[in-house]
Design a protein that fits this description.
The chain is an alpha/beta fold. It has a six-stranded parallel beta sheet, with helices on one face. The longest helix has 29 residues, at 479-507. It is flat.
């Protein structure tokens, strides 16, 4: 099998899941979801069980992502390195395919699990659970693949999955009453449900109300021959009944004959029949036409290729617009594509990047934070470095932990996943903990050698044990929190050192800084990728934006006003809403990494103008001052070919328009 690298959208989705899980652990699911999604959390039907949906297009590799999500949720939500996962599928056929993939060495699904848990990860079906040896529980990750039908029985006493079985007796042999109470609190299973939409009976809901997590896999397939009619009805259900956004539904509802049934490997699904595509003009496809719409002025109903079409020649009122919004957006997008400067064959002036010379006659190198950090030597064994001021562990009788929920401090009994490595054994040594920290953090601290990591981790553990009096068994229980704080502490040390070094080498002139015209950023035609969910969708039409679409611009905001003024400015030839990714966006190095200014414009005189818009309350923050300084340095070294302006709503009584006039003068 070929190792699959996660695509950028898959990595972004997993990062969002990781951030939500971490936030939900501290603040609760409702507050975490509201902060991440910007809308209220729907607790039904899962009650207190955190549950979210990752929306991935059909064919987007959801099964592979689910395999990667196991470690994300296990670490960030359950704080365990030996999770128990229940992997639910809709049929025996898919169960066999999934089981084989997860058990086959070299398969991408298996590789995703082994990357986190090694080759010892156990994958089995429900019937084979008893074959897992007692010592493996809590030591190895266990993935149980089952069908939803295993739980689809009304009489609970007939669900074999919950029935008594003597084969499990060996797991509880010689356990006293105290031990049984501990086992009762063992970690709940993570649940991933493949094709969760197929659960029609609500059994999945009932099952998930027991464990702590669900990862739903939503697909919207349309099988009917009349695609537009079926898709319209399905979209109504998704939008009105389930709360999906209209633009998201447009990307989720697909015609089944054009895409694979599943994202399994080596599965072919050729289109069943050619699809009829209506010409884009003033013909709008409508699945249903109300009498009011038929009687509207300037509207004629026709039939093309078996589909109802509306030919609109008059004014499109709000009711008509609500029905035709998808077609109107497509029509306007095509019109904008024809009018954009890039589509007309125009060229955008090269935008020079920033370079440095360590000696006046030395080679010009790209200025990056990494170059600054190369000149920094971190003293990881200093008293300041090994101290973790934010790391606090309070323990009573070895059985409770303090945590945050809904931004409040709470107390609860420690669950079994926080018990020491071998469930309460006192044989753990400091070296064991150091080795575990190194295994957990070596990928997250790539700048440190193995020797540096081991020495630093040993120093931190020793400081906590001997200087602050934290018992080793307590550190072992709180090892995930300890790892997070160590990673954050190293990051803080690097940021502090980088800030001082950046000022000395770059801003204070120890290095020779100048624009690099040999490696400029080029705004090329057809290289402006913007996800559908982040595109500007307002009514105002920008005429000078270099590309047909705009990225990350909200209609009516302060940045929108700045964009309007740029678009209407007599001295601006064309401009770009800068992307925040390379190589499609322009960036300048800072002590923290890179910053991507909001706008890049080409005035009619051939210069390049970079505009960064900031709220007035942010202008005096240290990092904003540093960004302004590096931008002005970039412009001052260009020989008058570049200008940089940090624009605010009001600066000393001068508005946005006046500041742009002064910048472009």
């Amino acid at each position: 099998m070929t190792t699959l690298t996660l695509k950028s959208y898959q990595q972004a989705a997993l990062s969002a899941l990781r951030a939500f899980a971490r936030s939900a652990q501290l603040k609760g699911a409702a507050l975490a979801f509201g902060e991440a999604a910007g809308r209220p959390y729907n607790a039904d039907p899962f009650g207190q069980v955190p549950c979210i949906c990752l929306r991935i297009p059909t064919g987007g590799g959801k099964t592979l992502m689910a395999a990667h999500a196991v470690n994300v949720l296990a670490r960030e939500w359950r704080a365990t390195d030996a999770p128990v996962v229940v992997w639910l599928v809709p049929s025996d056929t898919i169960r066999s395919q999934t089981l084989k993939a997860l058990q086959t060495a070299g398969h991408p699904y298996r590789e995703a699990l082994e990357a986190s848990y090694g080759s010892g990860v156990r994958v089995c079906v429900l019937e084979d659970l008893a074959n897992i040896a007692p010592p493996d529980w809590g030591k190895r990750a266990v993935v149980v693949v089952a069908t939803i039908q295993s739980f689809r029985i009304d009489a609970l006493d007939k669900r074999n999955v919950y029935s008594f079985s003597e084969s499990f007796e060996r797991h509880f042999r010689a356990c006293d009453e105290h031990r049984l109470r501990v086992l009762h609190g063992l970690p709940d299973a993570l649940v991933t449900a493949d094709e969760a939409k197929n659960d029609k009976t609500g059994v999945l809901t009932g099952f998930i109300n027991q464990p702590r997590w669900s990862l739903a896999n939503w697909l919207a397939h349309v099988y009917e021959a009349k695609f537009s009619t079926a898709a319209h009805e399905l979209a109504d259900r998704l939008i009105n009944s389930m709360g999906f956004e209209a633009l998201d539904v447009a990307s989720m509802v697909v015609q089944q004959s054009s895409l694979p049934l599943f994202d399994l490997f080596n599965v072919s699904n050729e289109p069943l029949a050619p699809m009829n595509i209506a010409l884009v003009a003033t013909n709008f496809i409508a699945a249903r036409v109300s009498d009011e719409l038929r009687q509207a002025a300037g509207v004629e109903v026709t039939h093309i290729a078996g589909e109802q079409n509306l030919v609109v020649t008059g004014h499109i009122n709000l009711e008509m617009e609500a029905l035709l919004v998808a077609q109107v957006a497509q029509h306007n997008a095509l019109a904008a594509a024809q009018a954009a400067p890039a589509s007309r064959g125009e060229r955008f002036a090269p935008v020079p990047t920033l370079g440095y010379r360590s000696t006046p006659q030395g080679q010009l190198w790209p200025l990056e934070r990494e170059a600054v950090l190369e000149a920094v030597e971190l003293d990881l064994l200093s008293v300041d470095a090994i101290a973790l001021p934010g790391f606090q562990v309070v323990e009573q009788s070895n059985t409770f932990e303090i945590y945050l929920k809904d931004a409040k401090i709470n107390l609860r009994a420690a669950d079994a996943s926080q018990i020491a490595f071998d469930y309460g054994s006192t044989t753990i040594t400091a070296q064991d903990l150091v080795r575990w920290l190194d295994q957990s953090l070596f990928q997250k601290l790539p700048d440190l050698t193995q020797g540096q990591r081991s020495s630093y981790f040993a120093a931190v553990v020793g400081h906590l044990m001997h200087e602050r009096g934290v018992p080793l068994v307590t550190l072992a229980k709180a090892r995930f929190k300890l790892a997070q704080d160590i990673k954050a502490r190293v990051g803080d040390l690097k940021d502090k050192a980088a800030k001082a070094q950046f000022r000395q080498l770059v801003l204070e002139g120890e290095w020779t800084i100048e624009p690099d015209w040999t490696r400029p950023l080029l705004f090329e035609t057809n290289r402006y990728p913007v996800p559908a969910g982040s595109r500007y969708a307002g009514r105002y039409q920008f005429n000078k934006h270099f590309y047909p679409v705009l990225a990350d611009l909200k209609d009516g905001g302060e940045e929108f006003v700045c964009a309007q003024l740029l678009d209407n400015h007599a001295k601006v030839k064309h401009w770009v809403r800068n992307r925040v990714t390379e190589p499609c966006g322009f960036a300048l190095a800072t002590s923290r990494g890179r910053f991507f200014p909001d706008f890049v414009a080409e005035p009619r005189d051939g210069r390049v103008a970079v505009v960064e818009y900031k709220g007035a309350h942010l202008l005096n923050e240290p990092y904003e001052i540093e960004k302004r300084q590096i931008g002005e340095l970039w412009a001052s070294k260009s020989g008058g070919k570049c200008v940089f302006g940090q624009i605010a709503r009001d600066k000393n009584g001068v508005g946005v328009a006046g500041q742009l006039d002064a910048l472009l003068a």
